[in-house]
Amino acid sequence: MNSSFEEKNLIKVRQICFIYLAFTPVIKLLTMPSYIAEVSFEGLLLSFLIGCAVDALLLIIILNLSSGQRNATLYNDFNKNYGSIPTKIIFLILTVYYIARSVYPIFEHKLYVETTLYEMMPERITFYVFFIFSTFLSLKGLKILGRSADIAVWLTLVGLALALSLSVGSADYSNLLPLIPRDLAPVLKGAFRSGVWGFDSLYMPLMLGHFRAEKAYKTKITLSFIGGNLLVALVIATFYGIYGAVASGQNFALADMSVFSVIVTNIGRFDFVSVFLLLFAQIFAIAMPLQFATKSLERVLQTKNSTIPAVIVNGLLLLATAFFGRQTYNTLSLSVSVGVYAFIAVSAIMLGAMLFIKRNNRNEVFEK
Predict the structure, then answer these.
(1) Is residue 4 part of a domain?
(2) pTM of the full predicted structure?
């Protein structure tokens, strides 16, 4: 692959940490809390934490199966150990995975923008400007994602701090008791189904080899991943503390949390400041899987630039949104019933393939 491909995908450890702090948490702030509340009731926080723990463990394993060197990209490792055809098949699977996991977040954000930011439902074309933006990001690779995270992380943190400051006073956290319900079946069910918004660890394999390893980089990335999810856990706890048993009826947790705030009641929708701050990060977050899908498809097609893969990936999502964009909750049902199993299968394939390479490399060192 030419040097321009490698150059546009260079990223820093700091930026990877910021991606996990700024982008991956905000995907989980819209319909996920109300959906898990419908499944797990007061056990929704435990459901979320179980899902995050599994995802964090997967991230730790991926980091420890890699060398962390810039020349040891996933594609180079796979190509060396498996050959061209099997490697392309694996990267095609990754392409389909990233496209599939982007569908529901795009649909829910389309619905969120149209129903939250407008007094009247706009024409369907309103949201489609997003695909111009996502195509541009897909052409630019991971470097622009890292640079965007440098800025967005502060907007995310300020937006969440503002949203929580307007909401915590209205929350009754006793609604979450008991923290460990007697019946764990709904909790485990909720943990499994939250995978629709999870598996953020599977972004890491395509970033391997595109950054310079530094001291304790694995710890820094892991702690950033955990920190981002703990922020989401705080939002979930506050959301359920406010609404309790009727939380499942509130479609968009972040927009609904602060409606009982004294500031909002007396001054107006001051909480929209946090909504707009977080929306900046959310736009990059829902475009991120499309960037990774483009990057994977480049490897499959062996193209000289990103134009064709970017057009294919973003074009497919544009068509999906045009034809099925109003089927948000049907898409969620499909993602829960089929998608989560597919995501688990992709995780297993990736871990198995990386583990084989790690063992193979160890055997080569031992033989020498």
Answers:
(1) no
(2) 0.91
